[in-house]
Design goal:
The complex is a heterodimer of chains A (486) and B (251). With 486 residues, chain A is of the alpha+beta class. Among the domains of chain A are: 115 residues, Uridine Diphospho-n-acetylenolpyruvylglucosamine Reductase, domain 3, CATH 3.30.465; 109 residues, Alpha-Beta Plaits; 75 residues, Alpha-Beta Plaits. Chain A contains 16 helices and 20 strands. In chain A, the strands form five sheets. In chain A, strands 15-12-14-13-18-20-16 form a seven-stranded antiparallel β-sheet, sandwiched between helices. In chain A, strands 5-6-10-8-9 form a five-stranded antiparallel β-sheet. In chain A, strands 1-2-4-3 form a four-stranded mixed β-sheet, with helices on one face. Chain B is α+β, with helices and mostly antiparallel strands and 251 residues long. Chain B has two domains: 166 residues, Uridine Diphospho-n-acetylenolpyruvylglucosamine Reductase, domain 3, CATH 3.30.465; 46 residues. In chain B, the strands form three sheets. Chain B has a five-stranded antiparallel β-sheet. The chains are: A alpha+beta (486), B alpha+beta (251). Chains A and B meet through helix 7, helix 8, helix 14 and helix 15 of A and strand 5, helix 6, strand 7, strand 11 and helix 8 of B. The structure holds flavin-adenine dinucleotide (FAD). The site of flavin-adenine dinucleotide (FAD) has 36 residues of chain A, from strand 3, helix 5 and strand 10. The site of flavin-adenine dinucleotide has 36 residues of chain A, from strand 3, helix 5 and strand 10.
Chain lengths: 486, 251
C-alpha cells in the first residue's frame, strides 16, 4: 500500500488502485504498471538525489493512446509526467506530485525514412542512436550525439535540447528537428513544424523539459556524413596550456566538429579503471575533430589546430585519419565517465556554461574550490562551447562531504553566471536547478517564462514542479523528494 | 527616449506602440513609428567568444562595420533576398526573422540569437538566455519574439553569435521586387521548382533548399513567407498574442 501522503492529487487515498484500474480500462492491463517494485523503478531518473514514485506507469503504443491518457488525467485532475529512457540528469522525469508516469517505451517505431529529403520520422521513444544506424547506408546521420545516445530517446533529446561532442559545429537538437507531433495539455493532437512565416513554436517546445505537452513523433533533419575526418589527441603538461589552446582555436576562427577536454582526474580514473595510459607527464588531453567534404579545407583546419597546440606547448599530438585509429583516440573521451564512476562510492557531475574564452580562469577556479573543500574533481567536457562538467567524487555516507559537494557546485554555478554564462548547457533545470533559476533570472524574467509556458500549459498537471520555481503545491512536496537518497 | 527605462515607461503608459523598423517594406511603414535613435547604444564584441552584445536600434550596416574591425561578422548575406535596406535597424531583421540566402551554410537568426532584452507590453523589461553559446536554462523568450513582428514585445538588445571575417561571403544588395516570397522547398522538389520558376527564381540556396521568387509559388513548399504578410492566425499564435499583449497595443 502506498504512503497516503504520496497521493497528493485530489487528496484521496483510495485513488491509487482505482487510478490503475481506470488506466487499465483505457489501455488494457498489460499497458499499466502499479506494483510497488515497478513504481520504485520509476521514482527517479539518472539524477538520483530526489525521488518520488508515481501511482501508476502507463505504456501507450500510439499517439491516440497518449491522448486518451492525457484526457483521462485532465478529467480526473491527476498529474502526469512523460518519461523516455530516464537518463535525464536533473530530475525532469521525476513524478514530482505522484500521479501517472507516461512511458514512451512502446512508442518505438521508425515511421518513415526519406533519404532524398534528408528526413526521418520516428516515434518519441526511439533511441537516438537507432536513427543514425538506420540512415547510415544513405551516408546520413542524426547530428545530436549525447553520450547517452544508445539509450536516450528522441523525445528526451527534444525535451532537453540535448547536445553532444559533435554539436559544437552542428548545433544542438533544436537545429535538427523539422517537425513534431505533440499531445497538448487538453489532450488534442497537434503538429508543429519549422516555418519561416510565423512564430517559432518549435524552437520553444524543444528544450521545454516535457512541461508543454507529450511529444509522440518527430521528423528529424538528417545530416550528410562528412567525407573527410581528421582527429587529433593532444596532451599537455598543465591544464592552462590546454584551456588556452581551446581559446586560441576558437579565436582563430576554426570551428572544429568536436573539441573535448579531459583533465588529470579523468586520466587517473582511466588508468585505475581500465589500465589505460597516456603521456606520463600529461595533466590534460584535448580531443579535436575536424571534418568536411573538402579534404584540403579539413587539412587546413587541422593545421590551424596543430599550430595552436604548438604555441601552447603540447607534449604530444596523435593524429588519426581512419576509423580504426580514430576509435582509439576517442577511447579516453568515451570511457572517461564510466571510469570516474569506479573511483569513489559516489560521483556527481555538474553542468554549467561560460563564455568559452573564460575557460582558463574557470578551470583554475574549479580546482581551487575543490581543493578548499577537500574534494576530488575530474573534468571531462565540451570545451569548444564552454560547457563544463566538473565531476566530484565523494563518499555519500559522510554527510559533511555531501554538503561540501553541494556547496562547491553552487559556487561554481554562481561563477558561471558572473562570467555571463548559464547554470545548464545540456542537463536542464528539472528539479535539480530550480533554485538557481532565481539567481540567473529576475522575478520579471521568470514571470515572462511562465507566460511562455502557459501558451501551451496554463495548468499544473503536465510535468509539474519542473523548470520554474514557485509553482503551486511544489514547495511543500519537495521536502518529500529530498533526503530520500542522501 | 533616452533610456530603455524611459522607453519602457512610455510603453506602459500608452495604448498604442508603433515600432516598425525604418525603411522596411516588410512591415508596412508608418509615419508614427517611434524614434529610437536617441537610445543609448551598446555594442560589445567578444571576438574570442565569437559573440556580440548589441542594441537593436543600430543598423545592420553599422554593426557589421564595427564587428569587422574585430575580425568578425554576422553571416547575414544581403542579396535580392533581404528586401530590408542595409540601414534598417537590426530589430527589423529580428522582428521578421528575415531569411537570407546563406542559411544553409551559416544558419539564421534562430541559430544566432543567444539571448535578448525585451520590453513587454506591460512596460516590464525582461531578459532571456545569456551570452554563452549554449544554454538550456528556462523557456526561451528570445526564440519566441523572433519573427513576431514586434507584437510580443520590443527587442532592445541581443547577444548574437558572430563568425570570423575569413568566412565572409560577399552578397550584392539588390532592391527586392514587389511580391517577393521566400519558400522552403524539400530537396526532392528542387529541380521541379527550378524548372517551374524559370527567371521568376531570384535566388536559391542549394544547401538549405530555400527559394526566393515572385508570382505563384510552386506546389509542395514546407512554408512560404510573403513580403508584408501578417502573422498566421492559428490557435497558438492567438494565445501568445493574448497572453503577451492583452490590449493589442504593440504594432
Ligand atoms: C551517462 C550519461 C551521459 C549523458 N550524456 C549527455 C550528453 O552528452 N549530452 C546531453 O545533452 N545529455 C546527456 N545526458 C543526459 C540525458 O541523457 C539527456 O538529457 C537525454 O536527452 C534524456 O533522454 P531520456 O530519453 O533518457 O529522457 P528522460 O530522462 O526520460 O526524460 C528527460 C526529460 O524529457 C521529458 N521527456 C521525455 N520524453 C518526452 C516526450 N516524448 N515528450 C515530452 N517530454 C519528454 C521528461 O519529462 C523529462 O523532463 C547524459 C546522461 C547520462 C546518464
Amino acid at each position: 500500500m502506498a504512503d497516503p501522503a504520496l497521493v497528493v492529487w485530489m487528496g484521496q487515498t483510495e485513488g491509487v488502485s482505482s487510478l490503475a484500474a481506470d488506466l487499465a480500462r483505457i489501455l488494457g492491463e498489460n499497458a499499466v504498471l502499479h506494483e510497488d517494485a515497478a513504481l520504485r523503478a520509476y521514482d527517479c531518473d539518472a539524477y538520483t538525489v530526489d525521488r518520488s514514485k508515481p501511482q501508476a506507469v502507463v505504456l501507450p503504443s500510439s499517439t491516440e493512446e497518449v491522448a486518451k491518457i492525457v484526457r483521462y488525467c485532465v478529467g480526473a485532475g491527476v498529474p502526469y509526467t512523460v518519461r523516455g529512457a530516464g537518463t535525464g540528469l536533473s530530475g525532469g522525469a521525476l513524478a514530482a506530485l505522484g500521479g501517472v508516469t507516461l512511458s514512451t517505451k512502446r512508442l518505438n517505431k521508425i515511421l518513415s525514412v526519406d533519404p532524398e529529403n534528408r528526413r526521418l520520422t520516428a516515434e518519441a521513444g526511439v533511441a537516438n542512436k537507432r536513427i543514425s544506424d538506420v540512415v547510415r547506408p544513405y551516408g546520413l546521420h542524426f547530428a545530436p550525439d549525447p553520450s547517452s545516445q544508445t539509450v536516450s530517446t528522441l523525445g528526451g533529446n527534444i525535451a532537453e535540447n540535448s547536445g553532444g561532442p559533435h554539436t559544437l559545429k552542428m548545433g544542438v537538437t533544436v537545429q535538427h528537428i523539422h517537425a513534431l507531433k505533440m499531445v497538448t495539455v487538453d489532450g488534442e493532437i497537434e503538429e508543429f513544424a519549422l516555418r519561416g512565416d510565423g512564430l517559432d513554436f518549435l524552437g520553444v517546445i524543444v528544450g521545454s523539459e516535457g512541461t508543454m505537452g507529450v511529444v509522440t513523433e518527430a521528423t528529424v533533419r538528417l545530416t550528410p556524413s562528412p567525407k573527410h575526418v581528421i582527429t587529433a589527441l593532444a596532451s599537455f603538461a598543465n591544464v592552462r596550456d590546454a584551456t588556452e589552446s581551446v581559446a586560441a582555436i576558437i579565436a582563430s576562427g576554426t570551428l572544429p566538429a568536436a573539441l573535448e577536454m579531459m583533465d588529470k582526474g579523468v586520466l587517473g580514473a582511466l588508468k585505475a579503471a581500465f589500465g589505460l595510459e597516456y603521456h606520463p607527464a600529461a595533466a590534460a588531453l584535448l580531443l579535436v575533430e575536424c571534418d568536411g567534404d573538402d579534404a584540403q579545407a579539413v587539412e587546413a583546419e587541422m593545421q590551424a589546430v596543430r599550430q595552436a597546440f604548438g604555441r601552447h606547448a603540447a607534449l604530444e599530438v596523435q593524429i588519426a585519419e581512419d576509423d580504426a585509429a580514430r576509435a582509439k583516440l576517442w577511447v579516453a573521451r568515451k570511457k572517461g565517465v564510466g571510469a570516474m564512476g569506479r573511483l569513489a562510492p559516489s560521483i556527481v557531475t555538474h553542468d554549467g556554461v561560460i563564455p568559452r574564452s573564460e575557460l582558463p580562469e574557470m578551470l583554475e577556479f574549479i580546482y581551487a574550490e575543490a581543493s578548499a573543500a577537500g574534494l576530488g574533481v575530474a573534468n571531462l567536457f565540451h570545451a569548444g562551447d564552454g560547457n563544463l562538467h566538473p565531476c566530484f567524487y565523494f563518499d555519500d555516507r559522510d554527510p559533511g562531504q555531501v554538503e561540501r559537494v553541494i556547496e562547491t557546485g553552487e559556487r561554481i554555478m554562481r561563477r558561471c553566471l558572473e562570467l555571463g554564462g548559464s547554470v545548464t548547457g545540456e542537463h536542464g533545470i528539472g528539479v535539480e536547478k530550480i533554485d538557481l533559476m532565481s539567481e540567473m533570472f529576475s522575478p520579471a524574467d521568470l514571470a515572462v517564462q511562465g507566460l511562455v509556458k502557459s501558451i501551451f500549459n496554463p495548468g499544473d498537471l503536465c510535468n509539474p514542479c519542473k523548470v520554474l520555481p514557485n509553482q503551486k503545491s511544489c514547495a511543500e512536496h519537495r521536502k518529500r523528494w529530498r533526503g530520500v537518497a542522501w | 527616449m533616452k533610456s530603455i527605462a524611459e522607453l519602457a515607461e512610455r510603453v506602459r503608459l500608452t495604448d498604442r506602440v508603433q515600432t516598425h523598423p525604418m525603411g522596411s517594406r516588410f512591415l508596412e511603414g508608418s509615419p508614427e513609428a517611434w524614434d529610437f535613435s536617441a537610445l543609448p547604444t551598446v555594442l560589445i564584441a567578444y571576438p574570442a567568444d565569437q559573440v556580440v552584445t548589441v542594441s537593436t536600434h543600430l543598423s545592420l550596416d553599422e554593426i557589421q562595420s564595427e564587428l569587422n574591425r574585430t575580425g568578425q561578422w554576422i553571416p547575414f548575406v544581403p542579396g535580392v533576398a533581404t528586401g530590408l535596406p542595409d540601414h534598417a535597424s537590426l530589430r527589423g531583421f529580428l522582428d521578421t526573422r528575415l531569411p537570407h540566402p546563406a542559411v544553409g551554410t551559416f544558419g539564421s537568426w534562430r541559430d544566432w540569437v543567444l539571448g535578448a532584452t525585451v520590453v513587454l507590453a506591460s512596460g516590464e523589461v525582461v531578459k532571456s538566455g545569456c551570452r554563452a553559446v549554449k544554454s538550456v536554462a528556462g523557456f526561451d523568450l528570445h526564440k519566441l519574439v523572433l519573427g513576431a513582428r514586434g507584437k510580443l514585445g520590443i527587442i532592445t538588445e541581443v547577444h548574437l553569435r558572430t563568425w570570423p571575417l575569413a568566412s565572409r561571403v560577399e552578397g550584392e544588395s539588390r532592391t527586392a521586387p514587389h511580391g517577393l516570397w521566400v519558400a522552403q522547398c524539400p530537396f526532392s522538389r528542387v529541380d521541379a521548382w527550378r524548372e517551374a520558376l524559370g527567371d521568376r527564381c531570384l535566388e536559391h540556396d542549394a544547401l538549405s533548399g530555400q527559394f526566393w521568387g515572385t508570382g505563384e509559388v510552386p506546389a509542395g513548399a514546407d512554408w512560404v513567407w510573403h513580403e508584408g504578410q501578417p502573422l498566421p492566425e492559428d490557435r497558438w499564435t492567438r494565445r501568445a498574442l493574448e497572453l503577451f499583449d492583452p490590449t493589442g497595443k504593440l504594432n
